[in-house]
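Hi support team,

I'm filing this because I wasn't sure whether my run with zinc ion finished correctly. The job status page said complete, but I'd like someone to confirm that the output block is well-formed before I use it downstream. Pasting the exact inputs I used:
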Amino acid sequence: MTLNLYNTLTRRKAVFSPLFPDFVGLYTCGPTVYNFAHIGNLRTFIFEDVLKRVLTYNGFAVKHVMNITDVGHLTGDRDMGEDKLEKGARREGKSAWEIASFYTRAFRQDIAHLNIIEPSVWCRATETIADQIALIRILEEKGYTYRTRDGLYFDTARFKDYTKLSHQNLEALQEGARVERNPEKRNMTDFALWKFSPPGVQRQMEWDSPWGVGFPGWHIECSAMSMKYLGDHLDIHCGGADHVDVHHTNEIAQSEAATGKPFFNFWMHGALLNIAGGKKMAKSDENFLTLETTFLKKGINPLAYRYAAFQTHYRKPMEYSEESVAAAQNGLRHLYNQVRSLKTAPTAAGGGLPADFQAKFCEAINDDLNMPRVMAVVQELLKSSLSDAEKLAGILDFDRVLGLGLASLDQDDALPEALRKLVDQREAARAARNWALSDQLRDEIQAMGYVVQDSRDGMQVIKP
Ligand code: AMP
Ligand code: ZN
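And here is everything the job wrote out:
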C-alpha cells in the first residue's frame, strides 16, 4: 500500500517515496529551551511522532534528527529583539546554560509522558557552531551575504524562488511591514546568518567567528544540523505551521544557495493549537498551558492529550478547552476499559490480526495520517463481532502507531470478571432499551465501587 502525505512545498498530497529505498531521513525542528513547552508545541511533536511511527509501520527505517534551540532565537520578528535564552536567564536569575539544560530536561520528560519516541539524534545549536560558521562561509564565498552594523545577512533577492514554500506575496508583505525593521537590510525578508554581540555587552553565549564575536542566526542551525546528520539532500522536514513563512523559507534559501541542490523533498507542517477565540498559544504570552499544569497536577493521564490530538486531523487547527480535555480523558478511559476487558477475557490469547480491519487502518494512516479516521476504525473493531482474541491482536498492533500504551496496561486494573459480566448485561439492556434493568445493573456496578458514566458513545465504567 502506498503512503500519501501532504507536502507544503507542492501544496498537495503525493505518494511518499524516500531517496534511498526503505530508509527515511527525518528532521524535526525542536524546542527553544527558554521555558517549558506548552501543549501547542506538544501538539506538533505528537504529530511528528505519529508520522515517524507510520513510516516505521510501513517498513521504513527512520533516522530522526531533532535539534535543541539553545541560542539565536530572538524575541522579535525578523532578527529584532533579544535572545530568548538570555531573556530566560534574566527572568530566573540563572545562566543561559543552566536555563537551556533545565528546560531540555523538562522537554524530554514531557515527551516521555506523551509516549513520543525520542529521536535517533539530539543535537544542540551551541554544539554545532563550527558547522554553522562553515556553512555561512560557503554562502559568503558564493556572494549571498552582506554586512550591516549588527551582523552578516543573507540577501534573499539573490535567491530565486524565495517564496516557493510560503507562496507569500512579498509586495503586500512589504507594505504591511513593521516600522521596527532594520534600516540597513536590503530587503525586508533578508535574515541574519551571524549576529554580533552588541557593542560593550558581553553575552553569556558568544563565539569568535570570521566576522566578529557574536552568535548564529536562528535559521542557520537547522540547515547546518540537518546536513551534518542526514546529508545535503533529504527526505522529510517538519515543524509547526508557524514556521512556514520565515524559519523554513529561510532554511530552504540558505541551504539550496549553499549546495545548489534541492534541500528536503517533503515539507510537512502541523496546524496550530489555539486558545478560545482562535488565538495561537505562544510561549511569549507567558499564560500558556503546560502538560504539568493542565494534566499531571490535576491527576489526568497525560496520554489523554495524545488521545485528544488524534480527534483533529493534524492539518486542521485545534482549539483548546477544558471540555475537550475532559472528553479525551473519558474517551481514553473507555478505550482502556475496553482493552482491559479483552485482556482478561478467557479467549484473549492467540488471535490472528484481523486482515480487513488492518487494511482499513492502513488506508487511514496512509491517507496523510488521518487519525480521526483511525480512531473510528478502532471503535469499529472493538464493537465488531470478531473474537476477543482477534480484537486484542488488532488493537495491540494498531497501538504501534497510536502509542497509547495499550500493551502495557496494568492487568491489576482490569475489571474483575463478575463486573465484566454486569457491564456486558447492562450494555445489552441499554441496546434493548430496557431502562429499568439498565438502572438496576448500574446500581449493582456502583455497589462494587465503580463509577458508571453514560454518554452518546456508550457506557464507561471507571475505577475511581
Ligand atoms: P519553539 O519551542 O517555539 O521553537 O517551537 C517548537 C515547535 O512547536 C515548533 O515546531 C513550532 O512550530 C511549534 N509550535 C509553536 N506554537 C505552536 C502552537 N500554538 N501549536 C502547535 N505548534 C506550535
Ligand atoms: Zn528549525
